[in-house]
Amino acid sequence: MAGPAFDDRDGLIWFNGEMVPWRDANVHVLTHGLHYASSVFEGERAYGGNIFKLRQHTERLFYSADQLGFEIPYSMDDIDAACKETLKVNDIIDGYLRPVAWRGSEMMGVSAQNNRINVAIAAWAWPSYFSPEARMKGIRLKTSKWKRPSAETEPVHAKAAGLYMICTLSKHDAERDGYDDSLMLDYRGRVAEATGANIFMVMGDGKLHTPTPDCFLNGITRQTVIELAKARGIEVIERAIMPEELVNATEVFLTGTAAEVTPVGVIDTHNFTVGEISQWMMEDYDKAVGNVHAAAAE
Length: 298
Description:
This protein has helices at residues 32-36, 54-67, 76-89, 132-137, 165-176, 220-231, 276-297; strands at 12-15, 18-21, 39-41, 44-47, 50-51, 95-103, 117-124, 139-148, 181-186, 191-194, 198-203, 208-211, 236-239, 249-256, 260-267, 270-271. By secondary structure, it is an alpha+beta fold. The protein has two domains: 12-124, D-amino Acid Aminotransferase, Chain A, domain 1, CATH 3.30.470.10; 132-294, D-amino Acid Aminotransferase, subunit A, domain 2 (D-amino Acid Aminotransferase, Chain A, domain 2).
């Protein structure tokens, strides 16, 4: 992503209840969240000065913290208000927000019962996650060697920092080979998701198929797109999907707060078209977030 380094920017970050100059929003190197991944976060988008589905994101932040065994020391209303304030003080109309909560540095070791829970919220202008050119023709995915873990192994439904380590490894490997992102399978060898987005496929039956999110996030954008598809009369089937079924797919697209709705043109040796359903979902999602824009202008 082009632009200045993320630790060297103008602006303000909401940090434990106060607005702090961007460059001063720092933590100690012995912070537990850095060493033991005891950190949860959200990714949110603002359109026209309003944050799309803010409360759902805040609810998930609190759920994720609970899954990691800590309590956020603010109410949901406090966090919602802080997100809105962070947008406002940074004069951002269309952008991205990153609320994050983590265990501090009072104890260093696996046990961290007495560590302070810190919360910060940053916001910045951010264009599409993938380039407009890539989105129009469909991005290219490479299947990763890393797999999403079982729900018995990790708190897989939390948006927790530690779960993204294999996503970074997968995306870096894909980019080295000229791809845009990775397709991740789960521990059973089933299709799961991309590194930061859910996946949908239009099969030969004309229906929209998507993996059951039993070991990865049931994304907020994913849920939105399912609602939009059903409103168009498109049948959505949530089920186990094996990678060998990709040969039967005619269209594939990703969904996520950052990715929005992004068509896929290639997965390994399989090619797909940016077809009618993909285009409908892009248009309908743009309209859905556009309604937020219109409400902000009233």
